[in-house]
Design goal:
This protein has about 375 residues and is of the alpha/beta class. It folds into two domains: about 1-165 and about 335-365, Quinone Oxidoreductase, Chain A, domain 1; about 175-310, Rossmann fold, CATH 3.40.50. About 25% of the residues lie in helices and about 25% in strands. The chain has eleven helices and 18 strands. It has helices at about 40-50, 95-100, 105-110, 165-180, 195-205, 220-230, 240-250, 265-275, 295-300, 315-330, 345-355; strands spanning about 1-10, 15-20, 30-40, 55-60, 65-70, 80-85, 125, 130-135, 145, 150-155, 190, 210-215, 235, 255-260, 275-280, 305-310, 340, 360-365. The strands form three sheets. Strands 3, 5, 6, 9, 10, 17 and 18 form a seven-stranded mixed β-sheet that branches. The chain has a six-stranded parallel β-sheet with strand order 13-12-11-14-15-16, sandwiched between helices. The protein is globular, with a radius of gyration of 20 Å. The two termini are about 20 Å apart. The relative contact order is 0.16. The model has no long low-confidence stretch (mean pLDDT about 95).
């Protein structure tokens, strides 16, 4: 079928919105009409050349839509189902899956991170060339063919534009709090970076019942938004962040510090802002060649912990429906995450706005 897609033909160059051919879904695959797609830094990094990627590729990995066709052997979805896309469709059989760590699935590492579908057959074509689906989702397009396990059925009562960010930013941020760190009620939490993921860490901390939630950013607008999501305090990142966090936590530091930026500089700040015996959780993805350096002596003597968290450290097929339920109960903010809406034709404007945004998310809608 003929679709419109935003294709990255060369890194560090604008995306080209143009016609493409999309094959029907094969065994274990479904065709999804994309209704909304979030614009994430994980799309910006390959577009700008921060991460190596083989081109041509259709970006977009954070989306929601409606199933329009199912391939052979599909058993859990039907035409008309509303779905949230997940870029980590677990195989269910590898050691990580058997341990309950679906986001560390061996197949995701071997297939999704190489921008392929599990079946191995390319479905997208343009200019007489095969086009790779970024993270197996390729939702900067009218339609996408994805594996059955990458389309997670949700209630049709929830507007699809509200669900656009659920499949990445929301599950990543909230999951870092509830799954990776398992933050107990009453904790004191600091969050470095109040972008899409950072805001969801903030509201994850609020859902967990944290006593103090400190949002840290260099821009005033994201800090103001963070207050709406549950931050009790805000800190300008141009100040002495560690000192400010200690002042807000009776001189001890935060029990948990979440670094949603993931740069060497923010890692240093996170470790300094955490208390003795505290935990630093890194969710932010920097350049692939970025190196973090910190002093080992106080790290050991103060028994701090450093952990990484990818995609919410949980099980998307379980966690995404739970997050939808939290939204329906009024405990999870989704619409408030969307600051800007664009047509697909304006995808390059959306990426530029992301680079210099004042917080929250841009969303492509149809």
């Amino acid at each position: 079928m003929r679709i419109n897609a935003a294709i990255l033909w060369e890194q560090a160059q604008p995306l080209s919105v143009e016609p493409a051919e999309l094959d029907p879904p094969g065994p274990g695959e479904v065709l999804v009409e994309v209704r909304a797609a979030g614009v994430c830094h994980s799309d910006l990094h390959p577009a700008r050349g921060d991460w190596p990627v083989k081109t041509p590729v259709v970006l977009g990995h954070e989306g929601a839509g409606v199933v329009r066709e199912v391939g052979p052997a599909v058993t859990t979805l039907r035409v008309g189902d509303h779905v949230v896309l997940s870029w980590a469709p677990a195989c269910g059989e590898c050691p990580s899956c058997r341990e309950g760590r679906a986001v560390l699935c061996d197949r995701v590492e071997k297939v999704t991170f190489r921008n392929k579908l599990p079946g191995g057959v390319p479905r997208l074509h343009a200019r007489d060339r095969d086009v790779a689906p970024f993270l197996g989702t390729a939702c900067f397009a009218d339609f996408a063919v994805v594996p059955e396990s990458a389309a997670i059925k949700v209630s049709p009562d929830v507007p699809l534009d509200a669900l656009a960010t659920l499949g990445c930013a929301v599950i990543t941020g909230v999951g870092a709090v509830l799954n990776a760190a398992q933050v107990p009620k009453g904790s004191r939490v600091a969050v470095i970076g109040a972008g899409g993921v950072g805001l969801n860490i903030v509201q994850g901390a609020a859902i967990a019942g944290c006593e103090t939630i400190i949002a840290i950013d260099r821009r005033p607008a994201p800090l103001a938004i963070a207050k709406q999501f549950g931050a009790t305090d805000t800190v300008d990142a141009s100040a002495d962040v560690a000192a400010a966090v200690r002042q807000l936590t009776n001189g001890r530091g935060a029990d948990y510090v979440f670094d949603s930026v993931g740069s060497p500089a923010t890692l240093t700040i996170a470790l300094a802002a955490s208390k003795k015996g505290g935990t630093v959780v890194v969710t932010g993805l920097s350049r692939v060649d970025a190196q973090g350096v910190f002093n080992l002596f106080p790290f050991v003597m103060q028994e701090k912990r450093l952990i990484g968290s990818v995609y919410g450290s949980g099980q998307p097929r379980r966690d995404i429906p739970r997050l939808v339920s939290l939204f329906q109960e009024g405990r999870l903010k989704l619409r408030e995450l969307v600051a800007r809406k664009y047509a697909l034709a304006a995808i390059n404007d959306a990426l530029l706005a992301l680079e210099s945004s004042d917080g929250a998310r841009g969303v492509i809608t149809w």
